[in-house]
Write a structure and sequence with these properties.
This protein has a single domain, classed as Hotdog Thioesterase (Thiol Ester Dehydrase, Chain A, Roll), CATH 3.10.129. The protein is 22% helix and 32% strand. It contains 3 helices and 7 strands; from the N terminus they run E-H-H-E-E-E-E-E-E-H.
Length: 155
């Protein structure tokens, strides 16, 4: 069961993806010997860092352009628990959006078995914490290249 969190319109470019692996650490498990629900956010964060690095649109890329990208919404659907000392693969997907915001969805897998899905929405603010109504120039340029197919998913 894979959730579709963001609708893709026919003229939208394909989403961008990154994959990364992460192990559940001892300090992340609860008394039931599974990962405590609050730590899933760090797995999604790891995925965003990987995607940002892959496409040069990470937190510091935005920050250098005078933009911060705080979290607006966060959602998780738990399918199977994550267990101590196991390595999981995190798929992070950036979905096209015309607005000055970032829409990410996430899938966490264990040996190709889906364990978790979720999404996050990040706004774009200037350094004075004013909401941007248009994309910053560097990201607008990135989006133009994305839409033209110059930046695309590479498997």
């Amino acid at each position: 069961m894979k959730e579709i969190y963001f609708k893709q319109n026919p003229n939208d470019p394909n989403p961008l993806r990154a994959f990364t692996k992460r192990k559940v650490r001892f300090d992340e498990i609860d008394p039931l010997n599974i990962m405590w629900h609050g730590h899933y956010a760090s797995f999604f964060e790891e995925g965003r860092l990987s995607l940002g690095a892959k496409y040069s649109i990470g937190y510091m890329d935005f920050y250098k352009a005078g933009v911060i990208i705080p979290l607006k919404k966060f959602h998780i659907d738990y399918i199977l628990p994550l267990e101590f000392d196991k390595v999981y693969e995190i798929e992070t997907i950036l979905h096209w959006n015309e607005a000055a915001r970032l829409d990410f969805s996430y899938n966490i897998f264990s040996n190709d078995k889906l364990t978790t899905t979720g999404y996050s929405v990040h706004l774009m603010l200037d350094k004075n914490k004013n909401i941007l109504v248009s994309k910053p120039a560097f990201f607008e340029d990135f989006c133009l290249k994305w839409k033209e197919g110059v930046i695309c998913e590479k498997y």
